[in-house]
Amino acid sequence: MILDAIDKKLLDLLQKDSKRTNKELSNKLNLSVTAVYERIKKLEKEGVISKYVTLVKKEKVEKTFVAFCHIKLVQHTQDYVIKFEKEVANLVEVLECYHISGDYDYLLKVIVKDMDAFREFMVNKLTSINHIGSTHSMFVINEVKHTTAINI
Amino acid sequence: MILDAIDKKLLDLLQKDSKRTNKELSNKLNLSVTAVYERIKKLEKEGVISKYVTLVKKEKVEKTFVAFCHIKLVQHTQDYVIKFEKEVANLVEVLECYHISGDYDYLLKVIVKDMDAFREFMVNKLTSINHIGSTHSMFVINEVKHTTAINI
DNA sequence: ATCATAATTGAAAATTTTTCTGTTTGTATT
DNA sequence: AATACAAACAGAAAAATTTTCAATTATGAT
């Protein structure tokens, strides 16, 4: 699907605030309400828009401790990799998991209540997954920037 | 603000899909539409809900190259830190920036079109910020998990 | 028990989304 | 240039949802 300038502007607005009404959007884009409506429907149908979510402030729900964990596997057989990825994806403390290049195999973003909860997580959940070789954790001191909006 | 079990369930549902109607939610929560409405408004007012956003599939907008960049500053004077953080926050390629513990000072999540765009970004944008000592980049081979929903 | 406060409900009003019909616009073809 | 076709657009009506309102029920403190 080819995105024209209006689609891009529209996506930009929606990425920043999905609660804007079609009327608001139609004003900003100099279009009719229906035109906006149909463009959005098309973007949804084509999968450009994947979902609409509510963002929760972690400070308000006692999940202020954020850590990034590097993980190395002992082996890289298909079996081990598949199993590891499935188990990690099931951990609610892991919001993100990436297979990456470099010294380690994976990078995880973990969010828990505090250092104590993190220790608990490491001991009882993460390192109890088999085939993990080594880990290296980095703690977030301050979140300088965090957006979900891609520049289109 | 104290969150009861209903609030938590509600936040869980909204984090996964903010387009659910109050009627749908009222069914799942065994409440009236207005009760759901009032609870949501309160969560917004108290700042538990920070915003509603649209998520765009990066593959559909030609931003499939994701990298994590470690950055070390040459000095850590207040001035340098403030300036660096401000400049980094202004870069549209940088979706996330964290001040972290460990060997490096910062961890950045960068999203661009391809390796060429990444090189361009490194040379012309990132490393042109003053006071950067060294960088170390890791490239995302595969995104195993990526959610915005915190387990509450 | 009584009071005050907060949460909940159902109905009405206001707003928004969605559908529908017809028009315009752009593009390709002759 | 004229024609045909499809895609995008516009305005109005219908459907659905959000928001307001008044009244009721629960909750906690005195």
UniProtKB/TrEMBL annotation, chains A, B:
SUPFAM superfamilies: Dimeric alpha+beta barrel, Winged helix' DNA-binding domain. Residues 3-64 form the HTH asnC-type domain. One of its GO terms (molecular function) is sequence-specific DNA binding. GO terms for cellular component: cytosol. The keyword Transcription regulation applies. One of its GO terms (biological process) is regulation of DNA-templated transcription. This is AsnC family transcriptional regulator.
